[in-house]
Amino acid sequence: MFKLFKKNQPVVDNQVYAPVNGELIDLAQVSDQVFASKAMGDGFGVKPTDNTIVAPVAGTITMVADTKHAVGITMANGLEVLIHMGVDTVDLKGAPFTINVKTGDQVTGGQPLATMDLKTVAAADLDTVIIVVITNSNDKLAELSIKPGEIAAGDVVGTATAK
């Protein structure tokens, strides 16, 4: 009977999943210096090889940008994760993006979130890198452990542990 009340609770999962097929790179290697400097929080980048973006963590969707270039997820452990699709893609006013989730949705790691038309982004002469950062790193992050290299969307690539 009490299980009914826990239905909408986020899944407790500290694993970090590959958000897209491609090459996982250190955050310092991304072309956007605000992210590369970790001013937005600790995280990583992925040079994508396809259009399907999946949840890099399990949690609750807390934000979908009006321009569809970014999605926020809060993990059950309190870490706030931002998935930023491309660099300066806000200027494209949502054109290359399709979002499959809405604020309040519960997601599991590896669940499809969005698609990003890489050709449209590249044709606009913009970087297609997918950036994943924990925006409350300074206050809440104890450790982010990530394995760089070639990855497949949904693969476990590390863990994010809260303080």
From TrEMBL:
Record carries keyword Mitochondrion: no
Keyword Transit peptide: no
A cellular component term, taken from the record's GO annotations: cytoplasm
SUPFAM superfamilies: Duplicated hybrid motif
Main localization, broad class: membrane
GO biological process, one term: phosphoenolpyruvate-dependent sugar phosphotransferase system
Residues in PTS EIIA type-1 domain copies: 32-136
Annotated GO MF terms: kinase activity
Entry keyword set: Kinase, Phosphotransferase system, Sugar transport, Transferase, Transport
Localisation: Cell membrane; Cytoplasm
Topology in the lipid bilayer: Multi-pass membrane protein
InterPro entries: Dup_hybrid_motif (IPR011055), PTS_EIIA_1_perm (IPR001127), PTS_EIIA_component (IPR050890)
Protein name, entry field: PTS system sugar-specific transporter subunit EIIA
Organism of origin: Agrilactobacillus composti DSM 18527 = JCM 14202
